[in-house]
Amino acid sequence: MTMINAAALVAAFGVASATALAIEPREPTVADCPGYVLKTYSQTENAFYADLKLAGTPCNIYGQDLQDLQLVVEYQTVDRLHVLIKDVANNVYQVPDEVFPRPDGAAGCLPSESNLVFSVVTEPFSFAVARKDSGETLFNTSGSDLVFESQYLRLRTQLPDQPHLYGLDMTGEHTDPFMLNTSDYTRTFWNRDAYGTPAGSNLYGHHDIYFDHRGDKGTHGVFLLNSNGADIKINDTAGQYLEYNTLGGVFDFYFLNGPEPRDVSRQYAEIAKLPALQPYWGLGYHNCRYGYQDAYAVAEVIANYSKAGIPLETMWTDIVRKDYMELRRTFSLDPERFPIERVREIVDYLHDHQQHYIVMVDPAMYAGPATGPSGGAYSRGVEQNVFLKEDNGSVYHGVVWPGVTAFPDWFNPDTQDFWNSEFQMFFDADSGVDIDALWIDMNEPSNFCTYPCSDPAAFAISSGNPPAPPEVRPESVRPISGFPGDFQPPGLQRRAVQDGAMMGLPDRELLDPPYHINNAAGIISNLTSNTNLVHSNGLVMYDTHDMYGSMMSSASRIAMEARRPTKRPLIITRSTFAGAGKDVGHWLGDNLSTWFHYRISIAQMIAFSSMFQIPMVGADICGFGGNTTDSLCARWALLGAFYPFMRNHNGFDSIAQEFYQKPLWTEAAKYAIDYRYRLLDYLYTAMWQQNQTGDPSISALYFTYPQDTNTFNISEQFFFGDSILVSPVVEENATSVDIYLPNDIFYDFFTYEPVQGQGAMLHLDNVSYTEIPVHIKGGSILPLRTNSANTTTELRKENFTIVVAPGTDGAAKGQLYVDDGESLVQNATSLITFDYSDKKFDMAGTFDYDVGVSVDAVIFLGQAQAPAVMGYGFDYNATSQALRVNIGQPLNGPLSFSL
Ligand SMILES: *[C@@H]1O[C@H](CO)[C@@H](O)[C@H](O)[C@H]1NC(C)=O
Ligand SMILES: *[C@@H]1O[C@H](CO)[C@@H](O)[C@H](O)[C@H]1NC(C)=O
Ligand SMILES: *[C@@H]1O[C@H](CO)[C@@H](O)[C@H](O)[C@H]1NC(C)=O
Ligand SMILES: *[C@@H]1O[C@H](CO)[C@@H](O)[C@H](O)[C@H]1NC(C)=O
Ligand SMILES: *[C@@H]1O[C@H](CO)[C@@H](O)[C@H](O)[C@H]1NC(C)=O
Ligand SMILES: *[C@@H]1O[C@H](CO)[C@@H](O)[C@H](O)[C@H]1NC(C)=O
Ligand SMILES: *[C@@H]1O[C@H](CO)[C@@H](O)[C@H](O)[C@H]1NC(C)=O
Ligand SMILES: *[C@@H]1O[C@H](CO)[C@@H](O)[C@H](O)[C@H]1NC(C)=O
C-alpha cells in the first residue's frame, strides 16, 4: 500500500472535497450526528483505503459513536465493487467467514477495467457508485451523514424518483408488494416464527439484497452483508431515498453492475455461492400434514393417493400433535402411535414403490430425563457441551413443542459431531427411520416462552407444551440426581474476546437495544433465544441470531451427507440467511388457505429463486392454516405444479386437503402433475443451470423484458425456466383472467396455437378450475417427456418429445441436462443443445450419460403450412399450426434435419 498524490486518486477513484454543512446547536437527534471526515487515504492497484474520523461531538444516541473508521474499497471484478466501512480496531462484530465465506477479491480488477466507478467526498464524508459508461449514479450517500455507533448504524442513499426496487427479503419473506413501495415504507430484518405470514411484517429470513431496475438504463444490485437486526426505510419526503438502520455490525457492501437483471442474479451468486443441485426425485410431488395421528393414518394416505391414481413421490410427517415424535421430542418416536417396526414397514413400502419419506427435525432438544431416545439426545448434548449457555454456564432453556428445551450452539466445534451422531443413530438405515431427505423447522430459533422467560418449566405447563400434561412436571425439566443431565458441564469453553478479532464491542445492551427495529414480536429477545447468550466462540446471539437457521442448515447438510455419502441431500428449511441456497431449499412457511397467500406465493417464489439464490422453493399448496376451499385448492394444485418445490401441507385443525379428498382436486392435481412431470427434465435442466451459473430458474417478467415498463410491477405471472410463462387465475371463483403478454410471439402450452403478444393485457375466458393459462415464449425449444408417470423413477424411462417454438426471427434454442439425478459426483452427464434456425433443426452436445430412451418426435409450432417432402413421417395440424415430425430414434447422439 503506498500513498499517492491526490491528482492520481481523483483520476482513479474520484476523490473530491466539499464544505461541511453548518449545524446549529440544539438537542441532539440522529439527524444531528456529526458524520465523518475522510482524513488520509492510500491505495493499491485495485483497492482504496481511507481513515474516517468522527467530524464533531459524538451524539451517542443509540450507544457510543465510534471515533475512527476505515473505508476499504476494492474493485473485485469488472462488475463487482466492494465497499467496507468498519472500525479501525476491528472490534465491531462482522459476519464470520465460516458462516458466509467472502468471495475472493484478491485477484481484483483495475479501476480502469471496471464497469463501476467509486467516488468519495471527504467532508462531510460520503461516497457514490456510478456506471462508467453512462455516468448513471447508482448509489450516493451525500446529503445524509453516516452514523456509526456501538448499537446503531445508519447510511442513506439517494435514489431516482419512483424507483423500481425488488428484493430485500421482503418479497421473499415479507408478504408485501413484489415491487417495493417507495414512500413511507419500512422493511425489517429479524428472523422470527410468524404463523400465518402476516402482511408487512418480518418473517423467517434475512436477505439484504435489492435489485434496482432502471429500464433501458440497466439493472444493478446492492448487497449488504450484515446479520444484525435492521430496518430498511424507503421514503420520498427528502428526495427519494433508501436508508439502512442496523443494530450493529459493519457496512459491508457489494455493488453489482448488472446491467441485465439476470446478470445481477449471477453476480450475486458469485458472493452468496451457487445453489445446491437437488435430487431429481425431489422435484416430484410431496404430501404432508401436521397431525397424522399414527402410522396407520400415514399408511392410509399413501394408499389413498395410489387408489386415486395421483402420483405421490414423497410422504412426509410433521412433529404432529401425536405425530411421529414421542411428546414432540426431536429424535424420538412415539412408541404407541409410531412404533419403529411400523415406521420401518412404511418406509420399506415407500422405497419398494420408488417413493420417499421425509420427517421434520427441530433444533430445540427436549430438556429432560432420558425416558426415551430423545431424552438421550439431550443428555448426550449436555455431556458434549453443545448447547447454548447462560452466563453462569448452565444450559439455556426455552420452551418449544416438547416443553422445556435446549438449543444447539452451531458455533461450537463439537456440535457438528453431536448432530452427525444423532442423525446416524436415529436415521440409521438398518434399524432407525431411514429418511430420504430432511425438513428443518423452528430455526429462527423459535421460542414460545415470552421474554424474559424466567421460568420455562412453568411456561411450558401453562402453555400446554407438550399437550399431555403428566409428562411435563417441573422436576422433569431440572437435572435429577443420578441422571446425566446434572453433570456439571466441563466449564465454559468460550473463547475470550480478543482485541481486533471482530467479536463484537463490549458493554452493549444486548437484550433490548436502545434503537427499536420494527420487529413484530416486540423486543428482539422476545419469542426467540435471549440475544445476550454467548456462543462457545465468544460471539453473541445479538449479532448472530439471523444466521441460526442457516447454520442449522449447513450442519444438517453435513449430517445428511455423512449418512449417505454419495447422495445429494434434499433439505427444506424455514429460516434462512443470505447464502443458504448452497445447502438447502425453503418452503415459504406457515401460510394460510387464502387467495392472498396463493397470490403472494408467486412474488415470494420469484424473490427466493431469482434474487436470493434459493431456487428450491414453494409455498404450502392449498394453504397450511385455516380451511381451504374447493376452487382455491384446485387452482393451487395447478399453480403449485410450477413451484420448484411442490408440496401440499396442512395444519391439524383444518379440513383434510389431500388431493384425493375431492373429485375436483383429484382432477386438477392429476392434470397438474401430468404437465409438471412432462416438464420435469426441463425444470431439472433449469435448476442445474442455476447451480452452474446462478441464472434463475424462476423469474419475473421484467427479467426477460427489461425494457418493457408494463412488466415492472407484474407479480402474479412468472417465467418457469426461461421459456414457460405461467399466468394463473388469481381471483376467487373466477373463470377468467387478464394476463399481460409482452410484444412477442407466444404459443399456448396445451394447444400449441400461436398467440401474438401485443404488449397489452389479454382477457382469457372459460378457464375452468382444472386449467391454468401457460404459454411457451417464442425462441424456445423444450425437451418434454412424451408421457407422465406415477413416480419420477418411472418417468425417467419415458421417451422425449421436443417442442420447437420459433421466435419472431424464426429461430429457437434450448437445452437438456441429464445425469443420474442423485449422485453428488457424476460419472457421466449429458448436455444436449437444441437449435433451430433457417428451417434447420440441430440436436448436438455431449451424450455421455446414457439416457436410455428415445426421441419420439420433434414438434414445430407456428408452421403456416406442412412441408412438401420430409425424410421422416409427419402429422400437420392446420388449426394449431403444429407440425409433428416422427423420429423414433435413441437419444444418444446428434440429430439434424431441415423442414
Ligand atoms: C417518511 O417520511 C415521513 C415524513 O417525514 C415520516 O412521517 C415517515 O415516518 C417516514 N417513513 C419512514 C418509513 O421513515
Ligand atoms: C451444484 O450443486 C452441487 C450439489 O449440491 C454442489 O456440490 C456444487 O457445489 C454446486 N455448484 C456447482 C457449480 O456445481
Ligand atoms: C412478546 O410477545 C408477546 C406475544 O406477541 C407480546 O404480548 C409481548 O408484549 C411481547 N413482549 C415484549 C417484551 O416485547
Ligand atoms: C374448518 O372446518 C372445520 C370443519 O368444518 C371447522 O370445525 C373449523 O372451525 C374450520 N376452521 C376454520 C379456521 O374456519
Ligand atoms: C365463491 O363461491 C362460494 C361457493 O359458491 C361462495 O360461498 C363464495 O362466497 C364465493 N366467493 C366470492 C368472492 O364470490
Ligand atoms: C398411475 O397408476 C394408476 C393406477 O394406480 C394408473 O391408472 C395410471 O395409468 C398410472 N399413470 C401413469 C402416468 O402411469
Ligand atoms: C461410477 O463409477 C464407479 C466406478 O465404475 C462405480 O462404482 C459407481 O457405481 C458409479 N456411480 C454411478 C452413480 O454410476
Ligand atoms: C420409446 O421409443 C422407442 C423407439 O421408438 C420405443 O421402442 C419404446 O417403446 C418407447 N418407450 C416408451 C416407454 O414409450
UniProtKB/TrEMBL annotation:
Pfam families, alphabetized: Gal_mutarotas_2, Glyco_hydro_31_2nd, Glyco_hydro_31_3rd
Catalyses which reaction(s): Hydrolysis of terminal, non-reducing beta-D-glucosyl residues with release of beta-D-glucose
Keyword Secreted carried by entry: yes
EC category name: hydrolase
Alphabetical keyword list: Carbohydrate metabolism, Cell wall biogenesis/degradation, Glycoprotein, Glycosidase, Hydrolase, Polysaccharide degradation, Secreted, Signal
A GO CC term attached to the entry: extracellular region
EC identifiers of the protein: 3.2.1.21
Domain Glycosyl hydrolase family 31 C-terminal: 694-782
Molecular function per GO: alpha-glucosidase activity; beta-glucosidase activity; carbohydrate binding
Keyword Glycoprotein: yes
UniProt-listed Gene3D superfamilies: Glycosidases, glycosyl hydrolase (family 31), Golgi alpha-mannosidase II
Domain Glycoside hydrolase family 31 N-terminal per the UniProt entry, residue ranges: 115-228
InterPro entries per the UniProt record, alphabetical: Gal_mutarotase_sf_dom, GH, Glyco_hydro_31_C, Glyco_hydro_31_CS, Glyco_hydro_31_N_dom, Glyco_hydro_31_TIM, Glyco_hydro_b
Signal peptide per UniProt: 1-18
Residues of the Glycoside hydrolase family 31 TIM barrel domain: 275-686
Gene Ontology process terms (BP): cell wall organization; polysaccharide catabolic process
Subcellular location: Secreted
Chain's role: Glucosidase involved in the degradation of cellulosic biomass. Has both alpha- and beta-glucosidase activity.
Similarity comment: Belongs to the glycosyl hydrolase 31 family.
Protein name: beta-glucosidase
Native organism: Carpinus fangiana
